[in-house]
Structure formats: C-alpha cells, structure tokens
Write a structure and sequence with these properties.
By secondary structure, the chain is α+β, with helices and mostly antiparallel strands. It has one domain. The chain is built from 4 helices and 8 strands. The strands form 3 sheets. A 4-stranded antiparallel sheet has the order 1-4-7-5. Strands 2-3 form a two-stranded antiparallel ribbon.
Length: 194
C-alpha cells in the first residue's frame, strides 16, 4: 500500500483591523473606555469556515470542551466568499479555539462593547458617514425590488466576527463602520458567484 500524501491545510486569511482604544459612545450615550483591539474586517466566509470542517474541527474534542457539538449545517449561501450562515454560538466558539491553535495567538468572539465600538466608531454614529442614511453611500442595491437581498443585522453576523489581541493588521486601519448593522437592518446584495 503506497504511503498517503501529507495533507496540506490552508488557513483562513483574515484581515484584522485595529480599533483604537479609548473612550467611545456606548448604546444610548453612555461613555465607556476600551483598550485597543483587532477585529476581522469581514464576516467569516463559507470557505474560511469550511477549512475548520475539513481539518476535522467537528471531530476534535479540544475545540468543544464544555460546548454542545451539533452536526455542521449547510450554509444558506453556497458561494465560497459569502458569509457563513447556520453556525450557532457553540460552533463559533469552537472555530475561534481552532483558529487560536492554528495562528498561535488568541482569537475569540467580540464582546458587546467591542462589537459596538467597531461598528459605531468612537462617536457613536449610526452609519460610517454620520447619523442619517444617505442614498448611494452604502454597498447595497437601492432599487427596492428586493431581488438578491437579505436583511442583515448585527445578530446575523455577530457569531462570525472574531477578535485577535496583539496582532498587527495587514491592511489600512479604518475606524468605525467596520460592521455597520447594529440596530438598523441593512439590505445587502451579493453579486452572483461572489
């Protein structure tokens, strides 16, 4: 019997964005302070999460200690670069534990204050450009016919966001609006095959 070839595992490429520390507006105007942190610029994609599955992530007890382990569910969107859906909080935690071991630095889900700071900037704005919606400024199709749309709120993508401490970002830092969704749903359109 010939020897099997070693399996090559390609790790997910995650674009970490530095969110500066300091005071920020939290929820309805309360001022809070956070240290600097890094958060993924984009939600975890199908192909990034599939790497965890293909690496045996659902079979390895190390990632599931103290967690309920479901069977992986198919994502709502099959395209590789779309956000991964149908992942519960336990799966998201197991994924971050696996990422931490692969990257050799701590990766975890953001807590509520980090999420809000990343999404709203330090001044608590509703949108990256300010507090009122401006047509043409968001990455959405504003035709109003709802073709190819999905209402996306922070609840839809929170489980797929990750935070890394003490990690240098590879690209430019953008403050605020990193994951604009918060309380107001945003219609997001994805190009076919994206």
């Amino acid at each position: 019997m010939p020897a099997s070839k070693p399996r090559i595992l390609l790790l997910p490429d995650i674009d970490w964005v530095l969110i500066p520390g300091g005071e920020f507006v939290y929820q309805q105007g309360e001022r809070r302070t956070l240290p600097p942190f890094r958060i993924a610029r984009y939600p975890v994609t199908n192909v990034q999460y599939q790497t965890f599955i293909d690496a045996g992530g659902y079979d390895d007890d190390r990632w599931w200690s103290g967690l309920e382990r479901p069977e992986p569910a198919a994502s709502r969107w099959p395209q590789a670069n779309r956000p991964r859906t149908n992942v519960n909080a336990y799966e998201a935690v197991a994924f971050t534990r696996w990422l931490s071991a692969q990257f050799r630095y701590a990766v975890r889900l953001p807590h509520e204050e980090e999420w809000e700071r990343a999404a709203r900037g330090s001044d608590g704005r509703e949108y990256p450009w300010g507090n009122s919606y401006e047509s043409g400024r968001a990455n959405i199709d504003e035709r109003g016919d709802n073709r190819g749309f999905r209402l996306v709120s922070s609840a839809h993508i929170a489980a797929s966001a990750t935070v890394a401490r003490d990690r240098r970002p590879r690209f430019a830092i953008r403050e605020g609006g990193a994951k604009m969704a918060r309380e107001h749903p945003v219609r997001t359109r994805f190009a076919s095959g994206a």
